[in-house]
Amino acid sequence: MSTIGDRKVRRLFIRTFGCQMNRYDSERLVEILGEEDFQPVDDYRQADFIFINTCTVRDKAEQKAFSYLGRLKQLKRSQPGLVVALGGCVAQQYGEDLLRRLPHLDLVVGTHGVSRVPAMLARYETTGERQAFVDFSYDFGDESDGRSQLCRPEVSSYVTIMRGCDNFCTYCIVPMVRGGERSRPSDEIVREVASLVECGVREVTLLGQNVNSYGQGVAEELDFAGLLRRVAQVEGLLRIRFTTSHPKDLSLSLMQCFADIEPLCPHIHLPVQSGSDRILKRMKRGYTREHYLRLVKELKAIREDVAVSSDMIVGFPGENEEDFQGSLSLLEEVRFDALFSFKYSDRPQTAASRLDGKVEEKVKLQRLQTLQSLQERITFEKNEVQVGQTTRVLVEGPSQVGGSQLSGRTPQNRVVNFQGTPELVGEEISVLISAGHAHSLEGVVCVEDNVNLKVVKERSWCGK
Ligand code: 5AD
Ligand code: SF4
Predict the structure, then answer these.
(1) For ligand 1, atom 13, which residue shows the shortest CA distance?
(2) 37 CA distance to ligand 1 centroid (A)?
(3) Which residue from 192, 293, 286, 210 is spatially nearest to 248, judged by alpha carbons?
């Protein structure tokens, strides 16, 4: 703990595993605890409160969270004042049991409990009572708590529009740990987007497990396409993205949005999971390979330059060589712009965990490697085609490459690294692509196309 004036400032360290939903919850927690005089620190050994936000969607993610927690045992022993909390999907799944199993854990905060953390902490600090909150009853009313009051210097931000999922794909634990689908009222979403834009945010990504079915449980008659149109009217908002979409719910009216909503970026993440009808059926995905291919074709007919990314699982129970070949040929046929691929793992309480025909670990690994090298070739070829083209890039910040390189994204969500100075962060600029790599592009800022941008004109490093 440190002191600023007569305020006691406590130090907060958050480690986030998993999806964008967890990242969003972690950002909210920083803001909520900021109101309680907590300041984030980069080193967990300096912290008074450590919050581990966990993911349980795949076995590996869960193991990572537990091994991280295990490492804190020693620290907790040497710093008895330290409070350790576990949040997110692992917390939701195992609940109070975790307190029994892990004596160095103080708080367990389920997927709906982020706004309860200050009260849980206060109770722990006054009574020493270790607690678990895994209640599903949740009101979206407090979703934007702390969010709109505090401005953070970021270019792009997530906004949750719905939580939970009603689909019960047979491999998936999400409905068990995130509960049923609930949408947030559109007025609240639009208000949050507007206040983020006021703080300087230029791009929002609307988040939900299945954004296409937005609107359930909301009193107004508004579907996801309608919501996009409302959000697009927020003045000053440059770009809109959304994730994730379920192919079975992708409507023509939503596809049409790519043609006529200007700030909507031409990119869709549309998880396919398998290229075999037999496996898709066992997964209960509700569409066939042909239907998926038709959707991609329709999307491209509506907007030629739309980028499509996807998720794929290998080694689902019962997947044979022919099924796997179906996944490979689907990759060749669609030529995804990006692909996230995973080895199937059994998750508790899921229907697939009870299916027969489990695939050997060795075979799963082999299939994953084959699939990933095929996709790497495709992504590389697609990136190489970009060379020589000029594209709009929203500059996000320093590049991971280091030096004075900046990084940004094209409308299609491709990462571009280029030489630049920090004044460009938050600007949308034209960049000439000079090289294509396996995971990113390299470019040069174009002076001619950015003449209206004072910062570009004045710098000598840029220019063709
Ligand atoms: N095993 C492997 N991958 C899974 N996913 C979800 N559940 C499992 C599982 N049991 C993958 C899916 C999903 C992504 C978020 O994680 O591809 O789209
Ligand atoms: Fe899981 Fe399927 Fe829901 Fe996605 S749509 S969260 S894969 S149950």
Answers:
(1) 311
(2) 38
(3) 286
The finding on whether 311 has its CB within 6 A of some atom of ligand 1 is yes
Ligand 1 pocket member 347 (CB < 6 A): yes
Give me ligand 2 centre to Cα 210, in Å: 7
Contacting residues for 348 by C-beta, under 8 A, at least 6 apart: 93, 173, 176
Shortest CA distance to 334 belongs to which of 312, 366, 364, 302? 312
The phi and psi torsions of 316 (rounded to 5 degrees) equal -65, 150
Over residues 199-258, the pLDDT tens digits come to 999 999 999 999 999 998 787 889 999 999 999 999 999 999 999 999 999 999 999 999
CB 445 within 8 A of CB 419: yes
Query: Per the structure block, which two tokens stand in for 109?
Result: 């905060």
Query: From the CA of 182, how far away is ligand 2's center (Å)?
Result: 14
Retrieve residue 259's tokens. 């043609």
Quick check: 293 and 262 in contact, CB under 8 A?
Answer: no
Cβ pair 33, 12 in contact under 8 A: yes
Q: How far is the CA of 165 from the centre of ligand 2 (A)?
A: 6
Quick one: residue 148, left, alpha or beta (phi over 0 = left, psi -120 to 50 = alpha)? alpha
CA dihedral 197, 198, 199, 204 (to 10 degrees): -10
> Among the atoms of ligand 1, which is closest to the Cα of residue 352?
10
The Cα-based distances of 242 to 168, 227, 299, 302 in angstroms read 21, 11, 15, 18
Number of other CB atoms surrounding residue 435 within 10 Å = 14
- Domains recognised in the chain with CATH numbers: 2-133 (3.40.50.12160), 143-265 (3.30.750.210), 390-449 (2.40.50.140)
Q: Using CA positions, which residue lies closest to atom 5 of ligand 2?
A: 167
pLDDT digits (tens, 9 = 90+) for 414-426: 999 999 888 899 9
- Which atom belonging to ligand 1 lies closest to the Cα atom of 343? 2
Strand order across the 156-160 sheet = 156-160, 203-207, 239-243
* CA-closest residue to ligand 2 atom 1: 172
Q: How many residues does the chain have?
A: 464
Pinpoint the alpha helices (H) of 345-444: 361-385
pLDDT tens digits along 70-94: 999 999 999 988 999 999 999 999 9
The encoded tokens of residue 456 equal: 């570009």
Name the residue with tokens 């639009």: 190
Most confident of 334-338, 401-405, 436-440, 449-453: 334-338
